[in-house]
Amino acid sequence: MFIIYLFLIIFVQNLDVINGQEIRTCDESYCRNPQNGVCKEIHCVGKDKMLYKNATTCGCCHKCIKILEEGDPCQLSMFRTLPESVCGPHLKCQQVDRDRICRKISDIPESDDETVGLCERELVDLDKYSVGKPVPECDDFGQYAPKLCRNGTLCHCVDKNGQRIFGSATYDKSDDMDCCE
């Protein structure tokens, strides 16, 4: 009985196809195998472009994505693929009448869009309401980056909502900080 069980475990671990679908194993050889596609040479230069590293299956290839400006047409979502373009900083793709366009986050009422991160909203509102407040650093999802520094003097760790958590250091030692997210 044990031998049959062991055989089944080994068989399933080495199975490359289940129900007609190939199972990818992302190891070093996957990206070097020409059958899995060859990465195209990318020239991603200019302020209206952004390089997404390791963007394809198994992280083999990079992709250049166009940065859209306010008023440009955009796509709300892409299923299982990276888009060809995204709205630029402080902009969000939103349905307006029949069109989808990039709009300033500050122009989108909070009640209309809960997907805008707290950090992104604070960053947009910083000029309007705050003097001397530290400028937050936001991640790609509009949440707070794990570290917040105040005017080159003191840094402390924050959670994704910008609330201070354990961990602080002087600015000159901030590169050594290990803030948990």
From TrEMBL:
Domain Thyroglobulin type-1: 116-179
Domain of life of the native organism: Eukaryota
Pfam families: Thyroglobulin_1
Record's signal peptide: 1-20
Disulphide-bonded residues: 119-138
UniProt keyword terms in alphabetical order: Disulfide bond, Signal
Entries under PROSITE patterns matching the protein: THYROGLOBULIN_1_2
Protein name as it appears in the record: Thyroglobulin type-1 domain-containing protein
Organism: Medioppia subpectinata
